[in-house]
Amino acid sequence: MTAWRQGAGGTVTNGHMRAAYITRFGxxxxxxxxxxxxxxxxxxxxxxxxxxVAANHVDTFVRSGAYATDVRxxxxxxxxxxxxxxxxxxxxxxxxxxxxxSLGHAGRQGSFAEYAAAPADRLYPLPAGVDPExxxxxxxxxxxxxxxxxxxxxxxxGETILLRGAGGGVGSAAVQLARxxxxxxxxxxxxxxxxWCRRCGAHExxxxxxxxxxxxxxxxxxxxxxxLWDCSGHHDFDATVPLLARGGRVVLAAGMxxxxxxxxxxxxxxxxxxxxxxISNASAADLAAxxxxxxxxxxxxRLTGRVRARLPLTEAARAHRLLEGRxxxxxxxxxxxxxxxxx
Length: 343
Hints:
- This protein is an alpha/beta fold.
- The protein is built from ten helices and 18 strands.
- The strands form four sheets. Strands 5, 7, 8, 9, 10, 17 and 18 form a seven-stranded mixed sheet that branches. The chain has a six-stranded parallel sheet with strand order 13-12-11-14-15-16, with helices on both faces.
- Helix 3 (139-152) packs across helix 4 (169-180) and helix 3 (139-152) crosses helix 9 (284-299).
- The longest helix is centred in the C-terminal third of the chain and has 16 residues, at 284-299.
- It starts with a strand and ends in a 5-residue tail after the last strand.
């Protein structure tokens, strides 16, 4: 566990750092930006100088207290970071470019700071030549997509996946990873996201507002789709379960407040399974497997996301307001923040 204290002597652990943190559960405006002591890494942690972070919806759940987890105040918010190893530790040398996507949970302090102490088994090398902003924009969504597709759904080459909400962060990452794995991808989203879904590699793109979309899916996959993932969290099972093949798998990873009607008979008589997961429960081994796939696609230039806002760390509260819909921007995509700059 990271200790929040000042070191004694002229090491990097002396002094303070800029951080975005909370002292109690509450709203976005309860996020403070100020100085905290530099973290002193534990024996299995690595001190990282943070270059870029991304805001995630799950960060807002932890900040508000809606997601029950071990939080020690003052608590630095944030899951993801791309940065540089500040001091040698284990297999990491000072100056190594690295990334992490599982801070700010289960007793771990978060990433929204100039420095973070990351568990060594949850820290991964950043492929050479990959831009930090490009990487941090997909780390959490791509890991969620990877675990959902391959560990949870068991997606195989040649299978067909129907992705609803395919234009969002997790959805578009799932499109890219499923396509790279040799699956056929049918994407459903708003008409304005159609071109983005095609750029991500969807074989077919359908308009979610078109009442003819279910019939179009049946025409495209007359034997049914093998995997259904509704990233939008709407879960209209009456409409979607009939689109599944025998033995089809449904991924549940969105819609915390959803209350769906399930046609039970159509599910069990066709060997359909519903498989829920949340990335916060992923083991270090799960995350390492997803990191290997993410790094492979980052290195090949085939994994990308959209960025709608670039903010300094001092605007962390605004980043959360954007995620919660309290402020709007014209462009879709991720909110990326940079710890550098004056406080």
